[in-house]
């Protein structure tokens, strides 16, 4: 940025000045900018735990909320911000799928580009991991006290729309209960875990980029693709993530 406005002389900018280059190299050596995670946790571990939270109609509202937000993060490959923005006016739920068209400005939004609509089909292989089943139960359970169209509500009165920090805390709780070391992995790494699991299942790069909202694969390969268990099935992103736990057995 400084090089755009300042120059040492007509031939060299501040960014190319040898003393500045040496200084920045020294900063890198003292505090290198390295990836936070060299590997990610196995999605199978969390999915196995979520399978124990059944039947959904017997769960408390808090546990049901935990299961819903964790499944949404894993099956969409989205940030916490996206899940936090989900609005019922933008969601169409049927017995076979959930269709979500996010109309809120997101981190990935820019002129001429926005997150593509999200479609989550019912997972017929195992009803315990079916997002449609969990989603419909959550809507039914919250219908009597819902005063906002925002999807995720608090579990106690006055049942307001929760913050992103609350969702992050819920996800960390699920990870901890599932056996994930939360001193190493934070809630936002669900994005890396789900996209890496889908990639190891032979999901096409185009499908992953569309699901996560990335414009090119360099972001995924550089920052999110980490070693994870191998799986293999059809090319639907959410189904790939769910089926990853079956193939590891």
Automatic annotation (TrEMBL):
This is Tyr recombinase domain-containing protein. It comes from the Eukaryota. Residues 33-238 form the Tyr recombinase domain. GO terms for biological process: DNA integration; DNA recombination. GO terms for molecular function: DNA binding. PROSITE patterns: TYR_RECOMBINASE. Keywords: DNA recombination.
């Amino acid at each position: 940025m400084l090089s755009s406005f300042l120059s040492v002389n007509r031939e060299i900018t501040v960014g190319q000045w040898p003393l500045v280059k040496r200084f920045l190299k020294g900063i890198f050596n003292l505090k290198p900018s390295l990836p936070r995670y060299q590997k990610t946790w196995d999605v199978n571990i969390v999915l196995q735990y979520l399978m124990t939270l059944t039947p959904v109609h017997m769960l408390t509202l808090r546990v049901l909320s935990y299961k819903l937000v964790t499944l949404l993060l894993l099956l969409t490959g989205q940030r916490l911000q996206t899940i936090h923005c989900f609005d019922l006016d933008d969601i169409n739920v049927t017995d076979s799928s959930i269709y979500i068209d996010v109309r809120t400005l997101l981190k990935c939004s820019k002129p001429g580009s926005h997150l593509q609509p999200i479609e989550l089909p019912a997972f017929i292989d195992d009803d315990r991991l079916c997002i449609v089943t969990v989603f419909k139960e959550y809507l039914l359970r919250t219908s009597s006290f819902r005063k906002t169209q925002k999807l995720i509500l608090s579990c106690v009165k006055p049942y307001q729309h929760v913050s992103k920090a609350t969702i992050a805390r819920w996800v960390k709780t699920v990870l901890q209960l599932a056996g994930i070391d939360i001193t190493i992995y934070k809630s936002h790494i669900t994005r890396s875990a789900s996209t890496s699991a889908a990639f190891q299942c032979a999901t096409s790069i185009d499908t992953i980029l569309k699901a996560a909202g990335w414009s090119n694969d360099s972001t995924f390969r550089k920052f999110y693709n980490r070693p994870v268990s191998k799986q293999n099935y059809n090319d639907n992103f959410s189904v790939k993530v769910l089926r990853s736990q079956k193939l590891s057995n």
